[in-house]
Each structure stands twice: as C-alpha cells, then as structure tokens.
Specification:
With 390 residues, this protein is an alpha/beta fold. It has 3 domains: 5-138, Response regulator (Rossmann fold, 3-Layer(aba) Sandwich), CATH 3.40.50; 142-313, 3-Layer(aba) Sandwich (Rossmann fold); 316-387, Helicase, Ruva Protein, domain 3 (Orthogonal Bundle), CATH 1.10.8.60. 46% of the residues lie in helices and 15% in strands. It contains 16 helices and 14 strands. It has helices at residues 14-27, 39-48, 65-75, 90-98, 111-141, 149-161, 178-187, 209-214, 231-234, 250-262, 288-293, 299-305, 322-337, 346-354, 360-374, 381-387, and strands at 5-10, 31-36, 53-57, 81-85, 103-106, 168-171, 196-200, 239-243, 264-266, 273-275, 279-284, 308-311, 343-344, 378-379. It is globular, with a radius of gyration of 28 Å. Keywords: Activator, ATP-binding, Cytoplasm, DNA-binding, Nucleotide-binding, Phosphoprotein, Transcription, Transcription regulation, Two-component regulatory system. Residues 6-122 form the Response regulatory domain. It comes from Myroides marinus. This is Fis family transcriptional regulator.
C-alpha cells in the first residue's frame, strides 16, 4: 500500500461535489477525500489540516476559488491547487496559474484528464516536499556555527545584503569558512531556487580558466571536440562563487570584468555574445590592494567585486566559538562514522581554546577527527597534547 494522499474538493454544487469525491475514492484506496462547499469553509480546513491537493471550483459564493488560492497560499505556500473552470472562467483559470495553481480543468471534467491531472499534481507536491527537506539539509550543511561578536556581525551583514543584488567580496585566511558565507548569501537570496556554481580559480590552470568560466565552441582548441557551456551559463539566474579570485589570470580578469559590466559572455572560439543574469560573489585569502599595486590584479575589477566587503576572522580571533565548533564537529563526525560522540571535558575545551590555530576551522576539524579516532572514550588533556601535534 502506498502513502495516502489527502485531497480537498471545494465545490458549491452538491451534485458535482459528490461525483468528484466518488470518482477519486474509487480511483485509489490511497486517496483520502474531504469536501467543502465554499471558499471560506475550505480555508478553515486548509488552515487546520494538511492537504496534498486542493481541487477548487472558481465561481463560488462567499469566497471564490481565486480568492481561496491567494489566501491559502499565504497560510500554506506549499499547498497544491487544481482549479475547475466553467467556459466563461477560462481567463480567470489561466490567471490562477500565474498566482500559483498547478493546473485547471474545464467543466464538465473529462474523467481521464481529471485523474491524470490529479496524479501529476500530487507528484509535483511530493517533489516540493522533497525539495524542502533537501533544502533544509543543505541549509544545515552550510550553517555558520558561532555566537562571538565577529560572527554575529557577519550574520547581520549577510541578512542585509542577501536579498539585494549587490556583489560581495569575502576576504580572510585559508580555512576560515569563506565558502559558508557565500552559501548563506545565496540561500537567503531570491536566487536560492536556482544554482550556486562554485569555481576554485586557484585549482584551474590559467590556460583553461577562460574555457571553464565562459565555455567554448567545438574546434576552439585541440581538445574541444564539442560545444561546452561554462560556469557563468550554468549559474544563469543563480549565483556564481569565484573562490580564490586573487589567483585568476589577468586575461580572465578582463573577461570577468566585461561579464559584470555588460551581463554578456562569449564562449572561447565563438563570435556570438550570450546574455547572462548572474550574481557574483568572490573570495580571496590574498590582499587584493597589494596585488593591484604589484600589477597582478585589476583595480577596476576589484571595485566591481567589492561593493560589499565581508572579512571572515581567523579562528584565533573568535576563540569563544571553539566549544560550539568542537561540539558541532563531534556530532558531525560521529554521524559520518556511525559512532557515538565522545565526551570532551571542560578542561579539554579550555586547552583547545588556548592553541594557536594557524590552519583555522579546517585545522580544528582535523584535530577533532583525530581525537575521536585515536583518543580515549572520554578525551583527556593528555590525548590533546599527544594528538593535536602542537
């Protein structure tokens, strides 16, 4: 037996309402069908119960189907609606899809069309739920752990800048979690339904970076055996995160500058421009001002990227967060390894707070993993002194 699906029929004509309930109940034992005779009654039901699908007539007394759709979406945005429209309601039915309805069915409803639409609508609802669960997992993965003043300041900046289209430059030493800041900006933005595409500029050879970013056409160079879109195209309507941008070649910098100025890119070997709508977030562990002075970074690109500057502190500058980070890594690593989390005493936490963390959060995580694997059941001060390699 499959998972039951709760369906609400909203129809003011009793005969049609009964027929629809009967058809759906006979179609599948997995359908639990409820009914309401007007929009007001339906809204009360939707507010107090969770329905996988609402099938609603458009013309009804008290509250029509269009009003019900708008009000229900305010209460439960994920509710899936299919509208039933008479011949004269066709324009309204099309408008309800703009307002968030999944589909509409004309009166009198064709049986096969009705059942196919119901199945498709329920499938779309399951997909929305799955995506919501997945998004929560992603949000958890990129959660910023810490309550120190420097971290709280960054969280405040993210909250203000994320809903805007402003470009952001994230600076800070290696291992401080600059990528977490980029992900949080994307997740809290209006682009979060679309992709965040990450590019590690330091990991791509300078001769390949332009092809990686902007794509290429077949025959552009020896190994270009077919057309290939670049990262900017993949990130269209989303966000591109240019990590370690200080390592990008000057020729690639010029092309990125053009993409930011004109919102167009050109694939390597092509003569046609492509329009792109991409928000750019960049990060570097280098002092870009110094790189500009020494002729390795374009000043005009720096000013394009650094509309908002976020400096991520070294772990040594946020020692208050070490106990929180340690407990977070203890739980995370225990889940990954399928083991029970180990106990770190207050003495051990205080010792960890005293160390010089030159490798920042990345180094702390490695040390915690080492202590989990090699330390005793309750990690001792001696374990830390032996395995932290300080």
């Amino acid at each position: 037996m499959g998972k039951t699906s709760k369906i609400l029929i909203v129809e003011d004509e009793a005969a049609i309402r009964r027929v629809l309930v009967k058809i759906l109940e006979e179609e599948s034992s997995d359908y639990v069908v409820d009914a309401a005779e007007n929009g007001e009654e339906a809204l009360q039901k939707i507010t107090s119960e969770d329905y996988d699908l609402v099938i609603s007539d458009i013309k009804m007394p008290k509250m029509d189907g269009e009003e019900l759709l708008v009000e229900a979406k305010k209460v439960k945005a994920e509710t899936v609606f299919v509208m039933i429209s008479g011949h004269g309601d066709l324009e309204t039915a099309v408008n309800t899809m703009r307002l968030g309805a999944f589909d509409y069915i004309s009166k009198p409803p064709d049986l096969n069309r009705l059942l196919t639409t119901v199945r498709n609508a329920l499938d779309s609802g399951k997909l929305v739920v799955e995506n919501t669960i997945l998004k929560k997992k992603v949000n958890k993965k990129y959660e910023m752990i810490g309550n120190s003043d420097p971290i709280n300041q960054i969280k405040d900046i993210i909250e203000k800048v994320a809903p805007t289209e402003a470009r952001v430059l994230i600076t800070g030493p290696n291992g401080t979690g600059k990528e977490l800041v980029a992900h949080q900006i994307h997740l809290q933005s209006s682009r979060s339904q679309n992709m965040l595409v990450e590019v590690n500029c330091a990991a791509i050879p300078s001769e390949l970076i332009e092809s990686e970013l902007f794509g290429h056409v077949k025959g552009a160079f020896t190994s270009a055996v077919k057309d290939r879109p670049g990262k900017f195209e993949q990130a269209n309507h989303g966000t591109i995160f240019l990590d370690e941008i200080g390592d990008m070649s000057l020729s690639a910098q010029a092309k990125v500058l053009r993409a930011l100025q004109e919102n167009v890119i050109t694939r390597v070997g092509a003569d046609k421009d492509l329009k792109v709508d991409v928000r750019v977030i960049a990060a570097t562990n280098k002092d870009l001002r110094k790189e500009i002075e020494e002729g390795r970074f374009r000043e005009d690109l720096y000013h394009r990227l650094a509309v908002i500057l976020i400096k991520v502190p070294a772990l040594n500058d946020r020692r208050d967060d070490i106990p929180l980070l340690t407990n977070h890594f203890l739980d995370q690593i225990a889940k990954e390894q399928g083991t029970a989390p180990k106990v770190f005493s207050k003495e051990v936490m205080e010792l960890l707070q005293q160390y010089d963390w030159t490798g920042n959060i990345r180094e702390l995580r490695n040390v915690i993993e080492r202590l989990i694997i090699l330390g005793g059941k309750e990690v001792s001060k001696q374990d830390v002194e032996m395995f932290a390699n300080k």
